[in-house]
Amino acid sequence: MSVTAPRGFEAAGVAAGLKATGKPDVAVVVNRGPLKTGAAVFTSNRAKANPILWSQQAIADGVVEAVVLNSGGANCFTGPFGFQTTHQTAERAAELLGVSAGDVLVCSTGLIGTGDEVFRAKVLAGTAEAIATLSADGGDDAAHAIMTTDTVAKTSTLAGDGWTIGGMAKGAGMLAPGLATMLVVLTTDAVLDAAQADAHLRAATRVSFDRLDSDGCMSTNDQVTLMASGASGVEPDPTAFRAALAEVCTSLAIQLQCDAEGASHDISIEVIHAASEDDAVEVGRSVARNNLFKAAVFGNDPNWGRVLAAIGTTGADFDPYAVDVSMNGVRVCSDGGPDRPRDEVDLTPRATHVLIDLKVGDASATVYTNDLTHDYVHENSAYAS
Amino acid sequence: MSVTAPRGFEAAGVAAGLKATGKPDVAVVVNRGPLKTGAAVFTSNRAKANPILWSQQAIADGVVEAVVLNSGGANCFTGPFGFQTTHQTAERAAELLGVSAGDVLVCSTGLIGTGDEVFRAKVLAGTAEAIATLSADGGDDAAHAIMTTDTVAKTSTLAGDGWTIGGMAKGAGMLAPGLATMLVVLTTDAVLDAAQADAHLRAATRVSFDRLDSDGCMSTNDQVTLMASGASGVEPDPTAFRAALAEVCTSLAIQLQCDAEGASHDISIEVIHAASEDDAVEVGRSVARNNLFKAAVFGNDPNWGRVLAAIGTTGADFDPYAVDVSMNGVRVCSDGGPDRPRDEVDLTPRATHVLIDLKVGDASATVYTNDLTHDYVHENSAYAS
What we know:
The structure is a homodimer. Chain A is of the alpha+beta class. Chain A has helices spanning 50-58, 79-97, 117-132, 139-145, 194-206, 238-258, 277-288, 291-298, 304-311, 374-381, and strands at residues 9-14, 26-31, 37-42, 66-70, 104-108, 154-159, 164-170, 183-188, 223-228, 266-274, 324-327, 330-334, 337-338, 351-357, 363-370. In chain A, 31% of the residues lie in helices and 23% in strands. The interface between A and B is large, with 60 and 60 residues.
């Protein structure tokens, strides 16, 4: 059901010919209200795609009627023509839906530099076709239409106390968010105003998408949008709603991790006893971005020296000679020295857990990443084709 | 001739059994004077190996009599026992050379966590054996003894106006310096005092080793040492000497780049018209660390979108929509949009040139890196063996 699980939403996904495979590539998600509350977070990459530049303006008033998303082209670094394409996409959707273009967000994903006349024509036609087929059961179709190298559609739903949250996500590479990541649409029938939606969204993405770092590469097109229809008539308990939204976001983030291009291990790097949550995230992210560590995990090698070398490059508060490191439950390093023998560690399961005890304070965080594999190199050396 | 090219130096390299292959693994370089000037720069990784902790103390007085180097074990995260091993190595060398242990630097390279009783015994025996075979022709033997996954020994010499500089280096992985990189010993018979040696060394490494970033992974053991014997009796022109030292360091850095583990392309990322040299280096390094860009080069794919996406993550002064990018002489992106067709770019040569024009100021810098290949993943997933 994905984004159409909550009351008040319709969605569709259609094949507009942007993908050479002929698979669905344009999705539309519409909020039928009664509220039209919206919030969004965007990539912090300074090189922003045209749909990001558009959507940042459109979200300013906290009102979102619809989101149009396409795969098969990022419309990034395509100049003024590309921005006009995004603008025309919002206008076409607005005209057909009878709303203001300034309340239609646009998201694109695919190869950077793609956004010519043919691309524009297909996106505009696909937008119209998707709107013509909108349905309260269209959530799954929409989730499929935003896939690129994803092998499965990513959706999540959660039922709260009288309200529901639904979500869909795409992303399989260039997964290293700064603020937001990938294309994600979240919907809820809870009653929220724009300020509440914004605060809930930022809090939820901070502990979910922001802690996913598959390959250290930040995209130009990342966007996470939350729409609230208020159709349940229920004003949610703020703490419960925020926790539920974080849970949906974490579910989608983990689905992204598990489908990352070429990965053979899903690695959770849990940092405990840090001086601050920021320190814990910095340490976890540094390990997540260390190619030597990631290649070692691919080879089922519990190379804790590479973990410590990565921690050493951070500014976090810790004593390198007091740190403990465990891998899949075996403490291979204690107080910065060898502990249990490496061969006690079984790294053959896909799920890999690295526990880093900084022994400084009470804060903790988990960062999610993947290993560095032959398949990752292969898929990303041939992506442009 | 490497480090024994200048007058006043002797060196040796011997097989002490640290390497399973039986190849040479302990090197000693001795300064016979008359001056015993020394300077050194070290990894900025906060997780520092025992030889780094020792050598940082030993260099404080600006006097270096000798450097003992071993491959086959990093002696990092080996606790107080490992530090004692380094200390004993310096004492053994000092005793045999008739100098102070505080004037003997120690460098180690190999697997982190290696440094037990067997390691200690072999290093101490190898140090004695190397000192017994010291020779004014021993520079090449020393250069071979510090190799790990290097496929070739790296040496460089340069003759100045009455003085000579010699150098040797090792390093094939974990190549991302902070201040210094890898194990490097530089020698000169020029007349230098400690302050001059330190200033020249820092200036030379800043524009050479500091701009080599093969895989983004900073080592725990990096050290670059300069020794001056004064045996030429010539006080060099400071500007000429600094330029010559930078040339030797750049030659060694390029040799490291060309022998990087598993690489199939040597990539020079030249950033021009930056607001500052720091901006140029930051932009170059961000591209050098982008796995998607590096995988694309491996696949001979001129994916300029990934270059721009990497630049966008920096704090450098630039307008993403004004940047030009050329690859091997073909301008594939101008003003942040597509320019020449991708298929005009020939990325089959090993030497790859990426030119990034930020169009902001007058500063420039070149960062040296490699592509991300199947062989890199393979070699680094099996390194512990």
